[in-house]
Amino acid sequence: MTQTTNLELLKKISNFALQSLLFEAALYPKPGLVDPISSGAHNDMDYGTFLDSSQALAPFFTDYLELGLAHQGTPEALFQKVRSTGQLAEQEMLKKTKGINTHKGANFSFALILASIGNMLQNEQLSLPFSEADTRAVFDYTKQMTSELIARDFSNLTKKKQLTNGEKLYLDHGFTGIRGEAAAGYPSLQETALPFLRQRRSPNERKNFLLLLLSLMATVEDSNLINRGGIGAWQQVQKMAAQQTQSLSEDPSIDELERKLVAFDRALIQDYLSPGGSADLLALSYFFSQLEGLV
Length: 295
What we know:
Helix content: over 70%
Strand content: under 5%
Number of helices: 13
Number of domains: 1
Shape: globular
Number of strands: 0
Structural class: mainly alpha
Low-confidence stretches: none
Radius of gyration: 19 Å
C-alpha cells in the first residue's frame, strides 16, 4: 500500500467516524435522546452541542488510526497509547461543549476500533468495503487490546474515596458498561446490530436505524439509563422497547414508526431517562455499515 493510498484510506475512514456521530445526532425521533427537533430528556444539551462535540473529536479519529498504523508491539501496549490520546480528545470535547459530556462513551469506542483498524492496515490486511470477516477481525483485535481492562480499571475500588458512576455500578451490581462491551469484542454490534443491518438492505436508512435503536434499547446494558433511573427504570425501558418492536407491523411505514417513537420519547422525557449507551452503539453500527458498504 503506497503512502498516498494510505493517507486517502485513513482520511476516508476517519470521515466515516465523523459522519457516524453526525448521523446519530440527526436521526429523528429518538426516545429520550437529543435530535434536531428535541433535546430529549436533557436540559443541558441540544443538537448544536452534539455538532460542536463531533467537530472537536474529528481530528482525533485520524490520530487513532495513525497510532494503530505505526504501532509495533502488543495489542495491550497499543491500548495504553490510545487511552492517553483518547483522554486528550475528551478534554477537547469538554472544552468545546463547556463541560457537557456528549460523546465520552462514543469517543472511547471509536478510539479502540479506529486504532485496531489502523493496526490491521499495516500489512494491507484490510480494504474497503470490509467483508464480514474483516469486521470480525477488527473486533477480535479490539478484544485483545482490552483483555486486561476490567481487571485493571475495577481493582481496589473499595479503597477509593471517590467513585465514578461506572465504578459504582460495577461494585453494586457487577455491571461493566462500555468497558465490558469492548472487552467482549462488542457483542451488541456483532450479534444484534450488524446482522440486523445486513439483512435489511432497504433503501430507507432512516427507518432501518430507528428500528435498530429500538432493538438495542431492548437488549443493551445501558449505564446511562441506570445512572439516571436505577435498575428498575432501565429494565422498564428495555421492556417498553421490546413491546414497541412487537407492536409494529412486519415492515412498518415511516409514519407508523414515527408515531410510536414520538410517544415513547414523551414517556422517557417525563421520567428523565436517556438511553445514551444505545445511542453510542447506534453510531458505531452506522460506522461499520459504511465500512461494509451497507449504506
